[in-house]
Specification:
Layout (H helix, E strand, L loop, with lengths): L1 E13 L5 E12 L5 E7 L2 E3 L16 E4 L3 H9 L1
Antiparallel strand pairs: 1-2, 1-5, 2-3, 3-4
Protein name: Small CPxCG-related zinc finger protein
Organism: Streptomyces graminearus
């Protein structure tokens, strides 16, 4: 099996309450003997589910989430001030 480690950042915005946040994930990628890709996500050293499959808002628990490229939430906050 082949294994690789990558780091990916994402921005999120809740479409219900408007809360925005950003996280950087450590991802262990493994290609098994049948050429299937397995991705295991870690956030701050903890094993977490993929943020791309079923994200939830930490403020209101809504699942109506927009996922964006990194830096979008930070740039919106700078624009507000």
């Amino acid at each position: 099996m082949e294994q690789d480690h990558v780091r990916r950042a994402y921005s999120f915005a809740c479409l219900d309450c408007g809360y925005g946040w950003e996280n950087t994930y450590d991802i262990d990628l493994t290609v098994d003997h049948d050429a299937r890709l397995l991705a295991v996500y870690h956030l701050d050293g903890r094993l977490v589910p993929s943020p791309l499959q079923s994200p939830r808002c930490p403020a209101c628990e809504s699942n109506k989430i927009r996922i964006m490229r990194p830096g979008r939430v930070a740039s919106a906050r700078r624009y507000e001030t």
